[in-house]
Amino acid sequence: xxxxxxxxxxxxxxxxxxxxxxxxxxxxxxxxxxxxxxxxxxxxxxxxxxxxxxxxxxxxxxxxxxxxxxxxxxxxxxxxxxxxxxxxxxxxxxxxxxxxxxxxxxxxxxxxxxxxxxxxxxxxxxxxxxxxxxxxxxxxxxxxxxxxxxxxxxxxxxxxxxxxxxxxxxxxxxxxxxxxxxxxxxxxxxxxxxxxxxxxxxxxxxxxxxxxxxxxxxxxxxxxxxxxxxxxxxxxxxxxxxxxxxxxxxxxxxxxxxxxxxxxxxxxxxxxxxxxxxxxxxxx
Length: 284
Known about the structure:
Layout: H1 3-26, H2 33-36, H3 49-52, H4 70-95, E1 104-109, E2 117-121, E3 127-130, E4 133-138, H5 144-155, E5 164-170, E6 175-180, E7 186-189, H6 196-202, E8 215-220, E9 226-231, H7 233-237, E10 252-255, H8 259-278
Parallel strand pairs: 6-10
Antiparallel strand pairs: 1-2, 1-5, 3-4, 6-7, 8-9, 8-10
């Protein structure tokens, strides 16, 4: 047997061995058919949100997404809790709001456009005029729900089962005043429920001569006496006290001066006194 014949036999044996190995790898056994070929379906299987932990709604705090970092989850929970705490405060303000002069309201009678009115400005007398109601309706000191009940009772004589809705379009009768060492003292409109710190911010903030730790609110008591309510605004700014002192109509915020203001007043008086002595002006 020549060397060429031996080489040809070796190559043939190598090819046969390679073919056998490939066949064993690509062709699964009859019992392993399900393992070798993955099952395919025309539609994707639905995932159970409770098993996967995925959230169906973005604002649903009951479920927590699995692909969101813990710090983002904590921030979202904090936002939801803040919204839940703030919303009732403002809703409560408008539902308990007592109507007064310059407030703007709208009266809507369902399916009765001729009896509905929009943008009614409450006059100083507090009495608004409506169709088929002689003398109008007195609204001062009443909530929108109370006014709606009165109008419903009036229209019940002319309309079958009247459905009346009264809405507050603009709150203009609630006012408060702020005096002392603030940027812009004066009388201001309270169009929403606000704290003392919010009122101070709207007035331009406390000046450098103001004492933030001794701010107080003068509130009229049932006896007619104005009683002070101390508010440590400095502690609130530092996060050491809660910002929970809310204003009521007629409140007066007073921001007193601090030691710096007294020093400036003394220096000013001293300069005036020195000027008077130089020019021989008699000083009382």
